[in-house]
Amino acid sequence: MKRVLIVKVTSLGDIVQALPVAADIKRAFPGVEVDWAADEAFAELVHWSTSVDRVLCAPLRRFKKARRWGDFKAIAASIAELRAYRYDYIIDIHGVYKSAIIAFLARSSKRIGYQSQDLGERGAAFAYTGRFGPRPQRCDAWHGMRISASEALGYEVEGPAVYNLRLPEPATAPFAADSAPVAALFHATSKDDKKWPLPHWVAVGRELAQRGFHVVLPWGSEGERAEAEQIASQVPGSTVLPKLNVTEIAQMIDACALVVGTDTGFVHLAHGLQKRTVMIFVATPPSHFGIEAPFRSISIGDGHSVPPIAEVLKAIDYVHSEPRAVAIQHGSAAA
């Protein structure tokens, strides 16, 4: 096998959790070239993976919103790039119309996708010449992607997920080298039903400050900044960060000693970067979408109710209960 194309277009957390598929393929087939097709908004993240040789991207999301001529031309140009190579296999681990169209346009006689009942959009089935087996029921969505790809290409999944992320060096260090250990609280969510109450964040922030952490609060919108300022006003020594782009947030995460947050893309990224991470679930099931690595990452909550403060503090104790070296067993750390 010489070249494989993985199609996983969005979103940040899903792409992070799909990256181990590329590492699995590299391990199973030494010397194989692995390309990845993603939306332009998330291509930067895929470029950080040392398991991916070529990143193909187009402004699909932006074009859908604005319908600008420049974006249309960029999409047209990306098709030529997509068809520059012939692939032994195309693996669509997204399963919607846009990923299926990409798979169909790429050059290969073997385009593998989910069975109809497992597709995000059933019409995507038109693109495939073969199907994955039934979606595994006794594992989370992330391990399920690894199993699907392995069955399609004929190898065994071995060991824990390996992310192989290498970030660009920051122009300046996110935090002073001699400062207290930093704990980032990702309180913001894409949906209101995923939010953990602000008074709970204040209580956890205060506890972390008492333990000697410098608590920092990232944000993405003006509403999120206002919430961050509310929390910071009640947590001694805490800092509301300036507006950061995706790369800057990743570099900030990589400089942290602890990340606590809701079920969002950046908290999945923290897990992929081998940080000590606690993910809080309020409205979605952690058994399907959570993170877990012994003494490093843990998901809490039942997906139906608000986890209590004590449960989060217990989880923080857990991820700090063993030496940092334990995490090395769970994939390559970010450079």
From TrEMBL:
The pathway this protein participates in, as annotated, is:
Bacterial outer membrane biogenesis; LPS core biosynthesis
What is the protein name given in its UniProt record?
Lipopolysaccharide heptosyltransferase 1
Primary residence: membrane
Family to which the UniProt record says this protein belongs: Belongs to the glycosyltransferase 9 family.
GO biological process: any one?
lipopolysaccharide core region biosynthetic process
Classification via InterPro entries:
Glyco_trans_9, LipoPS_heptosylTferase-I, LPS_LOS_Heptosyltrfase
Spell out the reaction equation it catalyses.
an alpha-Kdo-(2->4)-alpha-Kdo-(2->6)-lipid A + ADP-L-glycero-beta-D-manno-heptose = an L-alpha-D-Hep-(1->5)-[alpha-Kdo-(2->4)]-alpha-Kdo-(2->6)-lipid A + ADP + H(+)
Provide the topology term for how it sits in the membrane.
Answer: Peripheral membrane protein
* Broad EC category: transferase
Q: Which GO terms describe its molecular function?
A: ADP-heptose-lipopolysaccharide heptosyltransferase activity
Instruction: List where in the cell it is found.
Output: Cell inner membrane
Q: Which domain of life is it from?
A: Bacteria
Mention any one GO cellular component term assigned to this protein in its UniProt record: cytosol
Q: What is its EC number?
A: 2.4.99.23
Q: Which UniProt keywords apply?
A: Cell inner membrane, Cell membrane, Glycosyltransferase, Lipopolysaccharide biosynthesis, Membrane, Transferase
Check the record and name the Pfam families matching this protein: Glyco_transf_9
Gene name in the database record? waaC
Please tell me whether the keyword Transferase is annotated for this protein: yes
